[in-house]
Target: FCD domain-containing protein
Amino acid sequence: MTLAEKAYLSLRNDIVRGDLKPGGALKMADLSARYDMGFSPLREALSRLQGERLVISESLRGFRVSELSLAEFEDALRTRLVIETEALRLSLRLGGDDWAAQLVAATYALKLQAERSGGDIWELETRHHAFHRALLSACGSRWMLDFFEQLYMATDRYRLPVLVGGAGGGGRDLVAEHAALADAALARDETLANRLLVQHYEATAATIRARHGA
Amino acid sequence: MTLAEKAYLSLRNDIVRGDLKPGGALKMADLSARYDMGFSPLREALSRLQGERLVISESLRGFRVSELSLAEFEDALRTRLVIETEALRLSLRLGGDDWAAQLVAATYALKLQAERSGGDIWELETRHHAFHRALLSACGSRWMLDFFEQLYMATDRYRLPVLVGGAGGGGRDLVAEHAALADAALARDETLANRLLVQHYEATAATIRARHGA
DNA sequence: AAACCCGAGATTTTCGAAAATCCTTGTTGC
DNA sequence: GCAACAAGGATTTTCGAAAATCTCGGGTTT
Model:
């Protein structure tokens, strides 16, 4: 793996996790020291992240971590719903045994991690991401999957602080929600699966809104 | 504007127009000579274009213009339809007088250019792009607009050779199609506008499919 | 004859300094 | 006192060479 790729993954990770604060300036000298590499791979990574809206740059004034705002969150979430709705529908139609088995596995792994008291929050997050990816993975559209990944990262920046702060948020049972969604998907019940997905999003949106107001 | 931005725009333009051939290797030395700049801004631009799927890179083997394939085209087009369907619906609900006026202007400019015999094909293409952008511009979602732009470029790579080769393709009346779509949009007829959009896509897909088979 | 290895040349990737630009601060002129 | 301006420092952006890696062909071995 090239340094440029490492820079991309490291920066992306640090931004999504909030280690690099929204609005904060990303000075080349600092980054060079932090990640122990020259300017070239860093610039390359930053300009890629700009395309994913995780950083912004003003000409000749360098890069900054992009700001968080409720409006931006709502936009990303509803766009994600548009994409996921269609991708889910396609997955239910096209998914074979491998897809079903992977979905069962992802659901189970998510449950295990969620029920492990004192478990790592980042590990849980990885499982959550994997679940949603598994759900859509059979849609057969690389564009939709790519967009899903981008939007997932964009919305995750808002959800992670909530996760780190309090528990699940608003008395939700994350495991039950996802298990129900998986069951509907495995039963190929498009209508139910879609309704559960929408509810899942509504609940997430409500949690973030509440947090943002507080 | 920085050199990196110029490199991005130039490369993107040259790839979409087909001046840089699909599958062709993009050697740094060649690009450096062609665009008269060093490696840094070029690499930055290429890695951005990789995110938009216009180029691909293998580690330590440089960049290539991404290949064209019918499957890839169909995927991009149907994803575009998912995004545009929703963005169109939102635009019809949210669009004010400015949006309506801009749409009328874009429709008229498209018509003028299309009817100018012997007109520049690239100018026509710019107007076509502007029309579709105007149609969706009031949707209020930056994510959807961004995705639309990406997908438009991805699909345009397939449509442009057809435009350059023969005329409109398959006896279609492009002007009438777009005018009808604009009328439905201005009348806020969501159902009709959506149907026309779907038809527009079907026709485009049919043209490309025929061309690809031939 | 086929497979393998080695080295020269070609190419990508990275670095660090140079050039260009921006920001701050102190000074001048009104 | 205050605005305009200029010098100096900080920072970004770009370049070109160095380092790292890959590719291709010839020669050797089995």
